[in-house]
Structure to design on (1220 residues):
């Protein structure tokens, strides 16, 4: 991807932007806000900047919105001016402080949603002026800065009644180029959207008030697709039995989202018909299934998705229970295994827009990793299998009440249990398993190769007696009932080896060493619960000082929220695939060697504990 | 509407084009073909012209398709260059003689459909190259000159199977910017569209083979909406009882079209799924009902339509039985009572593109008239009521077997009867009624004011005895059973008065006299059957020499066929509302005076019979 340098005056901020990015988005990329009220449609004329260096032809929108004299002076609408050369340009000062909200990982987001309501007191038709109902609305929207709006058939059908119900006083609901609804009277006090993160395991819906930028409430629940398998591959396997199975999986996903929505609507007294947009993040398979697009080729070499680009769809045909003409907007994916959830993570963390060199790791069935900064970013996905979720561990369980989520091995065994340490432990969840393995390393019971030592080799070790045989396999006895075997540890080792090898390939691509990584961001549900120190101890993440490792929570939801609150953020999110290089590990001939290398645990003395 | 002058070299042809028209369409307007293979999307780069005079900024498409050097020399893509100044430009000679078909009223139409099939032998994905199925198709289409194509959800759903059914050998079906289907293998030998004229009375469907430009067959039938009333107003009245009634009317219209389509598919062995486009003409009310948009405000002052602009819709939600993802494209209307059928008439006759000054008259419940030439054109609609269709005449009937369709009054009465003159006459159809009234005028039995003379005033007239009393009204006895009364003649007089007054207002708008009209075109079913001489005798059309009056048949269907065969014609058709001024008679304060004036029949001696 060819990049050009754009310098924005008076701040002097420089951005290296892929060819074809607009001056508007490139500025936003580095946090410079340019005035705009039309959502980047080229119709409000407010985003003009003065191009000081570099030839930039005026666009039809420039001719429509700007006086010829200004065009001669170099003024251009930033939202329609694509970068095909190096430029220096000047941004006029904002006329007023923009409204903003905090979203993502501590990011300030301008409150400038793609979804807007416009109250229109329309002129009434007379015998002398008989334009059509649609033209009347369209002309009024054009005057208000929302030109070129397209109605759906259902909106056309609603127009004659809607216009006449309150004497041509209406509110138009606009999402991007779509006229979503025309409602009688002034309904501007009700404007909601929903951010949805469709995880393989958990689905999270956050209802957003787009007037205030605040979350009204959030709700989460298990993805009902779990009935068809715990992970992406088993879901795809189910889908292979035919289109009825794909439909079944879709209904499960839509059903899950809808029940969360209904819960939110009920609890916060919000009407479904005042929710006009859903922005959806999720891995590529989840998005395929949500749209009832067969995901089979994703699971078969060479692992190809049906679509990766962002989609903008009507809600009704999907069955998503927002306003039927509302829009469902999916995030783009980078590849079949680096999905829209990761793109949303990247948006939420700002990692591809800032100078700090960061590594983002989101571990589930696949370990996805993104490494980089505004200068350059690369991403990959490593096949981790379900080990991190404790799925193939006999004692494995979800992080629900009674699950061991933390382990400390000292003179004795101390456990942290979900729901309270006085509960009877029922099993081990993913973070507990990682803690256990890390602690086995730290306490010297597991060697670098991943071999559990013989009790005979652990003479005098206070926990030596806990190493026992179960079904012919050496095991560590955590409680009377709960133990973890050597083969189970091998599986985790293999999973972390794959992720670590992937990260290694990313570091090589950028030509950096582990110590160059300024921040490691652990994303997703797993990232929230994992003990960063343990993750480092087992070598899942590079050996960086502990304070550089941060759990950033459900960033996929955060990115979706940002895209709801600001069309600027949405455009950045949708352009991210242009900015991030996707590295397919299956195609990397060095991956296997590296994987074998990374199977080993890091030497304990090399772990820098600050 | 501001107009600019564009001169095309080397022919030197000049066109005065409304602001914003493209150089491509303006050239086509005067019959100059510019090379193009992408359907005007700005993606094939073939339509470049050299701008010799008048500043014209290059567009983003110019930058993408043309070398910088050519842009500096003045080359521009004609399809994306909008006219905002006077220009002189040079069109390169066509590289090869374009394929053309005859359609419309003897018009030569380049065979260049908006709907195309593109056979794509796609590269197969590998581990190194894993773009999504959609991206693979989209990139290949882009290379073939069809960039920026948008898939529907259903097409996305079909992609994984379609690409893999024949090893990534597929045929893409593209209509405008829509990806309508992706079919396994090479299916380019099957490409059909259907032109539909939804008349209030009759619906005509013409199945077109878009590879050859030939009509495969045509089928027509009565509009099943007839069950809800004979004319537009009674249909609208029915629709007022609520949305269920609107749905009923839609189902009737769609049912009519579908049964015609099924007939065509069966007779000509064409598969429904190989018909990907329907271009629909019809009056505004018919289009509203076809789309299930409530037409009520059309019937109530100030007579406003919900939409007049052309619509491009998926077939499936409308229930139209072509390929479910096929496109249904409606013609634009000029006003609530000068509908898409008239726009299609104007396209088919070429009257707004040529220098000949023509008057087009399409008479039904409303008498629509368009007057003008390439220089300027005006249109109106006069409320004629059902008189021309003989609806309120006791002896009135449709033009079916046994209807009197022609009358000559000489020494005796001679009748022309539908189905053969030996049949027993059953009644009088519209053209028969007009003939009768004209003949009554010619034979001196009806005075200029429309009064049937007393037999006492007609001493010696061979037909004097046929003037008799029926139910207290003076009547003319046509056969033993069939007679026409004075009040019935008054009703026809009133209808023709309204139409003639409308035409008069159009002539005044253009500042011309009746003798300036070079051709009178009688369009529609009525135009086909009416005796031009009688139309002139009763004053329905201006008193021009008879050879200037032509029945042009079902031009609404012809215009729709043209729009199927050529994207160039389609664009012209869709732009026609910009070129034709609509005059609303209800808003014309002079209309009533003129109407009363035009109630009189023209003096017989002033009718120029050549």
């Amino acid at each position: 991807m060819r990049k050009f340098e754009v310098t924005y005056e008076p701040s002097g901020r420089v951005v290296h932007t892929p060819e074809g990015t607009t001056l508007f988005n490139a500025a936003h990329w580095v946090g410079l806000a340019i005035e705009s009220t039309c959502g980047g449609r080229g119709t409000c004329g407010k985003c003009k900047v003065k191009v000081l260096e570099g030839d930039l032809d005026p666009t039809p929108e420039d001719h429509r919105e700007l006086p010829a004299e200004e065009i001669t002076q170099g003024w251009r609408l930033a939202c329609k001016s694509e970068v095909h050369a190096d430029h220096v340009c000047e941004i006029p000062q904002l006329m007023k402080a923009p409204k903003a909200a905090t979203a993502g990982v501590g990011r300030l987001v301008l409150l400038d949603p793609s979804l807007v309501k416009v109250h229109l007191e329309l002129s009434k038709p007379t015998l002398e002026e008989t334009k059509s109902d649609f033209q009347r609305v369209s002309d009024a929207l054009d005057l208000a800065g929302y030109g070129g709006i397209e109605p759906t058939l259902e909106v056309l059908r609603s127009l004659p009644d809607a216009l006449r119900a309150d004497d041509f006083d209406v509110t138009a609901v606009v999402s991007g180029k779509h006229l979503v609804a025309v409602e009688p009277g002034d309904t501007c006090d009700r404007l909601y959207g929903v951010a949805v993160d469709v995880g393989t395991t958990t689905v999270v819906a956050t209802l957003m008030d787009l007037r205030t930028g605040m979350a009204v409430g959030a709700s989460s629940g298990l993805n009902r697709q779990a009935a068809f398998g715990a992970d992406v591959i088993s879901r795809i396997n189910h889908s292979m039995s035919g289109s009825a199975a794909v439909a079944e999986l879709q209904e499960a996903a839509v059903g899950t989202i809808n029940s969360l929505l209904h819960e939110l609507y009920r609890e916060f007294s919000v009407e479904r018909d005042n929710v006009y947009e859903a922005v959806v993040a999720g891995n590529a398979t989840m998005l395929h299934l949500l749209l009832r697009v067969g995901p089979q080729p994703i699971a078969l070499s060479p692992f190809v998705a049906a679509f990766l680009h962002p989609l903008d769809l009507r809600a009704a045909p999907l069955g998503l229970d927002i306003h039927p003409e509302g829009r469902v907007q999916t995030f783009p994916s980078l590849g079949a295994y680096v999905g829209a959830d990761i793109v949303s993570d990247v948006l939420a963390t700002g990692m591809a827009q800032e100078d700090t060199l960061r590594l983002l790791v989101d571990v589930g069935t696949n370990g996805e990793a993104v490494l980089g900064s505004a200068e350059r970013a690369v991403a990959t996905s490593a096949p981790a299998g379900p080990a991190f979720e404790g799925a193939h561990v006999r004692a494995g369980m979800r992080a629900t009440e009674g699950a061991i989520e933390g382990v400390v091995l000292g003179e004795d065994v101390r456990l942290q249990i979900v729901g309270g340490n006085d509960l009877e432990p029922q099993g081990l969840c993913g973070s507990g398993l990682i803690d256990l393995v890390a602690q086995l390393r730290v306490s010297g019971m597991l060697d670098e190769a991943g071999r559990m030592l013989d009790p005979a080799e652990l003479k005098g070790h206070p926990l030596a007696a806990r190493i026992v045989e179960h079904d012919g396999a050496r095991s560590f006895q955590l409680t009377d009932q709960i133990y973890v075997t050597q083969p189970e540890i091998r599986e985790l080792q293999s999973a972390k080896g794959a992720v670590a090898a992937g990260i290694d390939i990313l570091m090589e691509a950028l030509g950096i060493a582990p110590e160059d990584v300024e921040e490691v961001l652990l994303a997703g549900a797993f990232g929230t619960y994992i003990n960063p120190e343990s993750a480092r101890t087992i070598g899942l993440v590079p050996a960086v000082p502990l304070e550089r490792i941060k759990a950033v929570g459900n960033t996929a939801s955060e990115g979706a929220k940002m895209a709801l609150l600001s069309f600027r953020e949405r455009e950045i999110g949708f352009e991210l695939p242009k900015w991030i290089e996707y590295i397919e590990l299956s195609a990397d001939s060095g991956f296997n060697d590296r994987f074998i290398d990374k199977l080993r645990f890091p030497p304990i003395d090399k772990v820098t504990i600050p």
Remarks:
- Chain B touches chain A through 50 residues (CB under 8 Å).
- The CA atoms of residues 392 and 476 of chain B lie 16 Å apart.
- Chain B has a mean pLDDT of 92.
- The two ends of chain B are 40 Å apart (CA to CA).
